[in-house]
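Thread: nicotinamide-adenine-dinucleotide complex, take 2
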Amino acid sequence: MTQNDGTRTISHWLDNKPFAGTSGETAPVTNPATGVVTGRLALASVEDSRRVIDAATAAFPAWRDTSLAKRTAVLFKFRELLNERKQELAEIITSEHGKVVSDALGEVTRGQEVVEFACGISHLLKGGMTENASTNVDVHSIRQPLGPVAVIAPFNFPAMVPMWFFPIAIATGNTVVLKPSEKDPTAAIWIAELWAEAGLPAGVFNVLQGDKTAVDELLVNPAIKAVSFVGSTPIAQYVYATGTAHGKRVQALGGAKNHAIVLPDADLDLAADAMVNAGFGSAGERCMAISALVAVGDIADELVAKIKDRTVALTTGDGTRDSDMGPLVTKAHRDRVASYVDAGERDGATIVVDGRTVQPNGEPNGFWLGPTLIDNVTTDMSVYTDEIFGPVLSVIRVDSYDEALDLINSGPFGNGTAIFTNDGGAARRFQNEVEVGMVGINVPIPVPTAYYSFGGWKNSLFGDTHAHGTEGVHFFTRGKVVTSRWLDPSHGGINLGFPQNN
Ligand code: NAD
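Output below.
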């Protein structure tokens, strides 16, 4: 795992050890800041996938019956190890994703929040009990784990997104198969090693590396009882349709196009700071990034000027150096994002800051695209209609709040949104009227804290359960209600009528 010269093999993980797989197929893993191939990822065949799923299946009965106290003790140990060593994980993320190390550390810390939430799972697994619901009859409810579950992750948060799910899945007694993105798969192996060190029994947490072949096996294999997917909308739709058709519980979080509305009474300096942070952090490769700024009324010129001043001061470079923003994840993705800037220019938008000409603090073959600010964007331009997933902030000018709200509510996505205003009444109206799952009021990236649940509306989430918080606990468990009466001669007798409480 340590050599970084392109000969390193990144394998699967089952039964608490690496598994090379048998497919013989590999894919290159690249450092986006240098363009250099740093390793080869084993791509699972159907047989490899089954082997990993079998390990999770074999481990389930014992893990399910391990006491809550013992399960929680392992969670606590994992949390302690992660807290001590998260810098290592952050550096791995930077080396394959490209985001700056401080941002990678932030992602790990947000993931750690869910581990901490899961450490208190015993409180959330408590059922209800009613004594004497009928004469001498008691009723109680319990929640039980589902079995082996799959987590299929995107490239943009190789640690945090899996951690939205697996701490809760494991704490509630399930076993897990994590399928990381092919672009940054090493974080998952580091996490698997940490679980083993924390004392998690073999087979409870497994990693299956691969592409569509691995995903498809997870979706159809009857041993897998639930699938948590995060990625682009077309794949989320496919995963939801296929997984549910095979009888699984599925939550499939999809893409986004997040708008921020700035009302005329907002503090424009704070709003400009927020737009830059939310538009260009992690090079815009966040599902909660703001990519569309809706400026209401006559503030647009002043606001755009403030954002421009801040944007030109940003540094783009290698995430291990002192940069504000790193490269994009692959060359293909960098070129795709740049092509949207080209299209916006062709369509008549104003390129206020042009990231295509950035001078990076990094190697020439890195996948560089600087922060890009585009004004006078209209709703028919592809730079507006499509999820770009890069450091491109579009400004749409409108005359009224109603027009701004309509833009958001008529769009296909509903992941995150924000409003900037000093008017409490306007903010309250917005939170009530906007058709989006996560809303920020003067907060640009309103990612809910772990004990609330994360998830969007419309094409940003397929399924009815959001991630983590009590909804996450619900997703990874199923309810059972037990009605009991202990032997008593007075209960004898024949009665074919439907049982009634009396
Ligand atoms: P992606 O859809 O390309 O990949 C996600 C996962 O699906 C990966 O593990 C990948 O291996 C797998 N996959 C890819 N093609 C597949 C296919 N044809 N069949 C089966 N599986 C396939 O997404 P990405 O590029 O890795 O991540 C970026 C996307 O994820 C963006 O659209 C972003 O908005 C979204 N995202 C959403 C959220 C959210 O919470 N809603 C969070 C993070 C990222």
